[in-house]
Each structure stands twice: as structure tokens, then as C-alpha cells.
Design brief:
single chain, mainly alpha, 2 domains
Amino acid sequence: MMDGPTNVLIAFIVVGIPIIVLGFLFTRWFRLKEKKLDVEANLAVEKAAQYAASNAELEARVRILEKIVTDGGAHTAAQIEALREMPEQTHQARQLETDRSSS
């Protein structure tokens, strides 16, 4: 028969060590989950900021459209023409910059 200290040692080896190992693995798993949640939260914050910026741009466009719709006809036509000319002026300015840099 085995005496007291040997039984305690065997019980520790059979029961104690697996409990310690499982506890260690469990804490590591929770840390990993916590890090994943932090990464997902940061991504959600970035997406929210992008949506907010996009929403602000759309609101500005709607305000311009509302202003165009509620203004008088002659003034509206002048605004539309000014908007049409802006891309052409921008294109011409870029062309001049390109020509100057290549010279």
C-alpha cells in the first residue's frame, strides 16, 4: 500500500497539473478573444467615421440641390453653367501644370 505523501503527490499529478494547464489555456483564450474584440471595435469606429464623413458630403449636396430648386430660374441657370465650367477650368489648370512641369 501507498502511504499519505505518495497519495497526495499522485493526486496532485493526476488532478492538479491538468487543472493548472486548463486554467492557463482558458486565460490565454480569453486574452485572444479580448484582442479580437478590440480589433473589431477599432474597425467599427473607423467605419463609423467614414460613414459620418460620407453623410456630411451628401447633406452638403442636398443643401445645394435644395437651394437650386428653390431659387429663381435665371439664377439657377447661371449656377448650373458655373458648375459645368468648373470641371473644364480644373482640367485646363491641370493641363497647364503638366505642360509647365514637362518643360
